Amino acid sequence: MFDLYQSQRAMRAMRQTAMQRGVVAILDVGTSKIACLILRFDPTPMPTEGVGPMAGHSAFRIIGAATTRSRGVRFGEIDAMHETERAIRTAVQGAQKMAQVRVDHVIAAVSGGGPRSYGLAGQIALSGQQVADRDVAEVLSACEMPNIGEGREVLHAQPVNFALDHRSGMNDPRGQVGDILACDMHMLTVDSHVIANLIHCIKRCDLELAGLASGAYVSGIASLLEDEQELGAACIDMGGGATGLSIFWRKHLIYADAVAMGGAQVTSDISKGLQVSLATAERMKTLHGGVVATSMDDRDMIELGGESGDWDHDRRTVSRAELIGIMRPRVEEILEEIRARLDAAVFEALPSQQIVLTGGGSQIPGLDTLAPRILGQQVRIGRPVRVAGLPEKATGAAFASAVGLCLFAANPQDEWWDFDIQPERHGARSLRRAMRWFKENW
CATH number of the domain that 130 lies in? Predict the structure, then answer.
């Protein structure tokens, strides 16, 4: 039997231990690349807004960084365990060599797994007493557990709003007096097998997992401005094998989803359409690709190249307009799928409807012209925020998830398992049902 609540608390404890030692590794296992960053923390925590024992953040600096080509990963999920293990070891060893320090704990991101969002609500009676830590834990446990289905794991369970009597929109109700305390909580679930495979692969690399986060969530943390997170904005992380979507409002994640398509599918379309190798297709996409053709592109000829030994076959040329004609339909399909997800999340109801594109796929030329036609006019291409010690080659949009994981590690959002909830002493039926469900399905 495996108790999710206790396992998440154990990972939080490992994270605290790693921070006390001063270093922790960040691991972004993607379809196209695997990135590892090593952070050195200032041992003195700095207070910030929030509730719960995890509130607060620490200053950090990146002292090691390494990337390698991803192997054995498809659609953001591990497909070949041995190949992924070797790639992770290569990235971690490269970062450790640069930092000249050994790391034992890593915090990883999950980009696949079919994320699903749920909104939960609960309330308790206070009888005019001051709100204490135990009251916050009790109102979180009072949230009704939805039927998330078999084979799903809760990756995030974050309180996004507190209300005390008639006052809503509170971040921290502790110390205030009232009669009714209510809470809104966002819960994100993913496929449990995807999580289990990632954990197993990390353990095979002789590393301890100190935290897990949604790739779409951490990309939003890194790419959205503070005002955008406050007023309501969506972040679209166009990765190699999956495109993640996260929606923020009042600086909290309120919705996340993913589409199992990305830059790898664009490369595959080029390879099939032009009958070239995947390596050649990737080179053409990177150097000559785009999604908006002009009259000049008909005369801009590209030599395909190749190593087949057939001179005529290897010296073929295509116009850039033909290349764009292959890439554009797939990019449009990805954006239309994201548009459907935004409509399902009622994104238009938010005060601000800013959309930020990030990830490696967002660097395709012409995307800033095509995306507004499908997603709406308020679209911009976003880059991750700059953090101390980040190498220049890792400042691009392709590293949004990795940078977001750094911010997540240093300034974690409070989760349900950060609070001391004792189910055997609590009478809430919803909590007992949730804990029973976790134990039966693990």
Answer: 3.30.1490.110
Does 61 map to a domain? no
Give the number of domains in the chain: 1
CA pair distance 231, 216, nearest whole angstrom = 18
Digit-coded pLDDT (tens) for 268-290: 999 998 888 888 898 889 888 88
Give a yes or no: residue 275 inside a domain.
no
Domain assignment present for residue 156? The answer is yes
- Do the beta carbons of residue 400 and residue 221 sit within 8 Å? no
pLDDT in tens, 215-270: 899 999 999 988 888 888 999 999 888 999 999 988 889 999 999 899 899 999 99
Q: Which of 122, 85, 39, 119 lies closest to 403 in space, CA to CA? A: 39
Which residue spans within 277-420 are E strands per DSSP?
Answer: 301-303, 317-319, 354-358, 379-381
Residue 5's contacts (CB-CB under 8 Å, 6 or more residues apart) are 416, 417, 421, 435, 438
Strands 233-238 and 208-214: unpaired
166 domain residue, yes or no? yes
Helices (H), 23-132: 81-99
Tokens coding 234: 């969506």
What whole-number distance in Å separates Cα of residue 186 and Cα of residue 309?
57
Strand order in the sheet with 33-41: 60-69, 33-41, 23-29, 105-110, 208-214
This prediction's pTM: 0.85
CA 173 to chain centre: 28
Full residue range of the structural domain in which residue 155 is found: 116-191+418-441
